[in-house]
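Input record, target 12 of the design panel.
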């Protein structure tokens, strides 16, 4: 029988407790973006650049600047987040550190000007106007519906978490020193103008954030000013700094970022342990004890022996049907945004329509919010662990805590015996399929499988 996926335990909350989601009201503004599909959304975001051109010439390679003079785009971008939105947000309970930072670049270093506890709008405005401080607002998609809508579609498109931060900087000021990030960055200029300088990476496709001394980064490779409606992309590792030109109004931009810890190296770290574990079960060589004092000495023989084992595992990989993913798939779907909706959440994610029967035709729904993976049975000891099929989904994820660093988020999904894999793949790969055609030995198992998926709102009767 299928079982609920084992839910992660909930750690104790640290103060301040997560705030309740607060909707920030904005006037309806027509969107120039196309939300018909994840790829349509991304192509409209980088318009007029085509997707094929973007990934061939720019992605992970070099910056892309798109300067627009389109009033419709400008008006839409300005609606995504404004300085004035902070007043209504602060009235609902925003905290320094958790929800926002106040900072300024002083002599090439970031100076944090946060107070303790709750942030009050009048104090923010005072620091903004008198201390020329930048206000950095964390993960505004928690409150701004349109950013939720955009980022949810981008998570579907990239298959990676997508976060965002808003930076509001007064005239003649700079919030952050030159630095590089460990994420792919898309900058949307919302209000005012921002002067940018980009520099050649010292660590291409960097895996961590780092501040760089200005006297060591050379001259800018790119220098320009973003205006409302403009978009800037640059790869992780790109050194950058930005300031609001003097004599102008404040600048507001949103940084949308993705692909943190999403490299081939990360994938190998995720999958190789499972391969080693399975190979050791079947090959006595890997279960043999290490030579005496191996950990005390270094030798060429050791490296040769290790190389042989790696080749053995590579050979095994060629014949492996299902890769054991220990963390990446589950972490992505557990931490990502729930599907965007503008109606009643409870109604949307409650099973509806006809119960699936043996003579029903069914299909998946919310497929872009699911992952199918194989892993060990979490209810068994390491010695006796059997493989299970897990379907994790994000339908019940919390928008309120998205990208806020929760250490132990709750996972949602189902698990099935490995013998159900073929039937699950039939459903996964079909636009619609008859229940009676599923590759399971009994009609009872076929009905039980589709009923479990339907109850979890992952399947509908056509």
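The sequence produced for target 12 reads:
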């Amino acid at each position: 029988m299928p079982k609920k996926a084992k839910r992660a335990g909930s750690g104790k909350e640290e103060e301040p407790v997560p705030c309740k989601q607060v909707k920030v009201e904005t006037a309806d503004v027509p969107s120039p973006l196309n939300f018909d599909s994840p790829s349509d959304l991304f192509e409209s975001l980088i318009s007029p650049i085509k997707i094929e051109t973007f990934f061939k010439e720019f992605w992970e390679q070099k910056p892309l600047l798109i300067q627009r003079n389109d009033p419709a785009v400008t008006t839409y971008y300005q609606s995504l987040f404004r300085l004035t939105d902070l007043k209504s947000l602060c009235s609902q309970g925003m905290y320094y550190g958790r929800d926002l930072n106040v900072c300024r670049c002083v002599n090439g270093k970031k100076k944090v000007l946060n107070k303790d506890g709750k942030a009050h709008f009048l104090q923010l405005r005072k620091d903004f106007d008198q201390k020329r401080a930048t206000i950095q607002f964390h993960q505004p998609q928690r409150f701004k519906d349109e950013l939720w809508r955009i980022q949810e579609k981008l998570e579907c498109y990239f298959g990676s978490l997508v976060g965002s931060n808003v930076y509001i900087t007064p005239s003649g000021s700079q919030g952050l020193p030159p630095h590089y990030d460990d994420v792919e960055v898309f900058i949307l200029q919302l209000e005012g103008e921002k002067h940018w300088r980009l520099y050649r990476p010292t660590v291409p496709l960097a895996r961590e954030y780092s501040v760089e001394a200005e006297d060591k980064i050379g001259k800018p490779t790119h220098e320009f000013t973003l205006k409302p409606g403009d978009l800037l992309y640059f790869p992780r590792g790109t050194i950058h700094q930005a300031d609001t030109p003097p004599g102008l109004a404040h600048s507001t931009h949103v940084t949308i970022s993705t692909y943190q810890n999403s490299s081939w190296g990360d994938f190998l770290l995720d999958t190789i342990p499972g391969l080693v574990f399975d190979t050791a079960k079947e090959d006595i060589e890997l279960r043999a004890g290490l030579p005496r004092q191996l950990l005390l000495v270094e030798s060429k023989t050791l490296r040769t022996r290790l190389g042989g084992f790696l080749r053995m595992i590579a050979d095994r990989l060629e014949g492996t049907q299902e890769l054991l993913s220990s963390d990446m798939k589950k972490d992505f779907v557990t931490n990502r945004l729930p599907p965007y909706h503008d109606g009643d959440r409870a109604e949307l994610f409650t099973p509806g329509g006809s119960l699936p029967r043996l003579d029903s035709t069914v299909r998946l729904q919310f497929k872009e919010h699911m992952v199918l993976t194989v892993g060990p049975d979490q209810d068994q000891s390491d010695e006796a662990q059997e493989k299970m099929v897990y379907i994790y989904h994000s339908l019940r994820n919390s928008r309120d805590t998205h990208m806020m660093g929760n250490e132990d988020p709750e996972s949602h999904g189902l698990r099935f015996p490995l013998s159900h894999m073929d039937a699950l793949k039939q459903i996964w790969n079909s636009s619609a399929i008859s229940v009676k055609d599923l590759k399971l030995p009994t009609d009872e198992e076929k009905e039980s499988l589709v009923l479990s998926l339907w109850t979890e709102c992952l399947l509908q009767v056509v």
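Confidence is low (pLDDT under 50) at residues 5-19.
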